[in-house]
Design goal:
26% of the residues lie in helices and 34% in strands. It is an alpha+beta fold and 180 residues long. The protein folds into two domains: 126 residues, no CATH class; 33 residues, no CATH class. Bound molecules: zinc ion.
Length: 180
């Protein structure tokens, strides 16, 4: 028995043509058990609405919760909210595909009676988060990044000192005059 067995949806005996609802919880254990997970902490509620058709399954995913991420600006950690809806199409075939394609379609062997959605939940969490993750703004519209860290990072930036010197470099002033 694997930790991820709780993310199995047994669909074989379910009635066709109507919607079947399932609820799953994603918590720190989920990420701990997930090999190579980029995230370590988070709570996400996952609602799945499954429709069974003769040739395929359609799974509507609704994810809501928060994931701890690293801010790309100040490198501090914060919980990023998630509120995401997407659809996964599952075609019946003679084999199982590991990854969904551009159309979010996968193939499972028609002999299967379960579909495990743990990996898909992980992929959808990734899609739900923005590529650039930055601390949110406060009520006054100011960034909530760590100010001490920002100052340190600014000092470490290449060119931090040279730029200042360049402004007062007389040769630079001369060049500017020539160009004007
Ligand atoms: Zn930040």
């Amino acid at each position: 028995m694997s930790f991820f067995d709780i993310y199995n949806i047994p669909f074989k005996d379910l009635e066709q043509g109507r919607i079947h609802k399932f609820e799953f919880d994603v918590n720190n254990d989920f990420f701990e058990n997930f090999e190579y997970s980029e995230y370590k902490e988070g709570q996400v509620k996952v609602l799945v609405e499954l429709t069974i058709n003769p040739d395929n399954l359609v799974l509507e995913f609704y994810l809501s919760g928060k994931i701890k991420v690293v801010c790309d600006v100040c490198l501090g950690e914060f919980f990023h909210p998630i509120d995401y809806h997407t659809t996964l199409y599952v075609k019946f075939g003679d084999y199982n595909t590991q990854w969904f394609d551009y159309d979010q379609e996968i193939v499972i062997n028609r002999a299967e009676s379960n579909i495990n959605i743990a990996k898909h939940i992980y992929d959808f969490i990734n899609l739900a988060l923005p590529i650039k993750k930055v601390h949110p703004l406060d009520q006054n519209g100011r960034p909530t990044c760590d100010p001490v860290m920002l100052e340190k990072l600014d000092e470490l930036k290449p060119g931090h000192h040279e730029e200042k010197e360049q402004d007062i470099d007389p040769r630079w002033e001369q060049l500017k005059k020539l160009l004007n």
